[in-house]
Amino acid sequence: MVQGVYFRQEVLRQPASSDNIMILLTGATGFIGGLVLKELSKKNVRIRCLVRKTVDSKNPNISYVTGDVLDPESLVKATQGVDTVYYFIHMMGKQKEQEKFDILDRRAITSMVKACKINGVKRIIHLTGMSDPREKLSHHLASRKEVEEIIRSSGINYTIFRASVIIGRGGAAFEILDTAVRRVPIIPVFNWANTRVQPIFIGDVIRYLVECLDKKETLNKCYDIGCSEVFTYEELMREYARELGYNRIFIHIPGSWHWLSSLVLGKMSSVNSNVVYWLIESLGNNMVCEANDLKKIFGFEPISFGESISLIIENN
């Protein structure tokens, strides 16, 4: 089920598309994919969703095909007649041996690229994590970067968006932030306190992903996306507490304490403790946007962190 998320009014318009193209949407039942499906359904496009179990559709423009990203033959079948693939697959937290999620991610995207080439898919649209190339990346971000590089070197046209913390109900990073601030009166701050991030509201992420479909100038481009504000993680938590009206005490503790933090937050939140661990490990990596021309192309700027929280609070 898609979690509640709330868009600014202008995002709710129904943009027209001149071409009745076929889209393959992966991750259609997930956080990002489900919201993209909702917005794409307002356009004049046919959408084929890759799922593991058969689903009936009441919308004539939406169909479902059973398959698995680790099954190359099913991907060849799924990509037949497809113009554009939305690729929202991340294996982290989806298997027992967590240390192997990067291997599975590599297999999945490699199989998808091969299937796309077989069937002449024209474009891959992908959302990934932001990272600083000057830093040693966490296990999670290194895997995300590898997937991005496989897409970029595939010879298939692409549009890639990179985000740091996505602010919206149902997103793992936001749910961890929300749990820590709401449920922990005295919040321990570890060695990630001064890591810098540039958050973005989920509505703006979905808008970029959907509207880029009709913007040829985004072909073969990668974009960092975020609001205009840059926070340290400690500042982000303090600002969120302030927006909620909570008085929280922050104490600094040396070290990372990844496993303990993931164990505690995994039990308190709806996020799998293994996923919490890999996300906490990534807190040591800065995620700040490089300059781009997105405002010129899309005609809008992402809303502020405070506005994001206000929208979420209003609609809870």
Explain how this protein is built:
The protein is of the alpha/beta class and about 325 residues long. It has a single domain, classed as NAD(P)-binding Rossmann-like Domain (Rossmann fold). It is about 40% helix and about 15% strand. The chain is built from eleven helices and 13 strands. The strands form four sheets. It has a seven-stranded parallel beta sheet, with helices on both faces. Strand 1, helix 1 (about 30-40) and strand 2 form a beta-alpha-beta unit. The longest helix is centred in the middle third of the chain and has 19 residues, at about 100-120. It is globular and about 55 Å long.
List the helices and strands and how they pair.
Elements: E1 22-25, H1 31-40, E2 46-51, E3 62-66, H2 72-78, E4 84-87, H3 101-119, E5 123-129, H4 139-152, E6 157-163, E7 166-167, H5 172-183, E8 186-189, E9 196-197, E10 200-201, H6 202-211, E11 221-225, E12 231-232, H7 233-244, E13 249-252, H8 258-268, H9 273-281, H10 294-298, H11 305-314
Helix pairs in contact: 1-6, 2-3, 3-4, 5-7, 7-11, 8-9
Summed over residues and divided by their number, the pLDDT gives a mean of 90
Task: State the CATH superfamily name.
Answer: NAD(P)-binding Rossmann-like Domain
* Secondary structure: number of strands: 13
Report the β-strand fraction as a percent range: 15-25%
Runs with pLDDT <50, length 5+? 9-18
- State the end-to-end CA separation: 16 Å
What integer value in Å does the Rg equal? 19 Å
**How many structural domains?**
1
Order of adjacent strands in the largest pleated sheet: 3-2-1-4-5-6-11
What structural class do you assign from the helix and strand content? alpha/beta
CATH topology: Rossmann fold
The name of the CATH architecture is: 3-Layer(aba) Sandwich
Q: What is the molecular shape?
A: globular
Number of helices: 11
Note the run of SSEs as H and E. Answer: EHEEHEHEHEEHEEEHEEHEHHHH
Helix percent band: 25-40%
Assign the CATH class. Alpha Beta
Main sheet specs: 7 strands, parallel
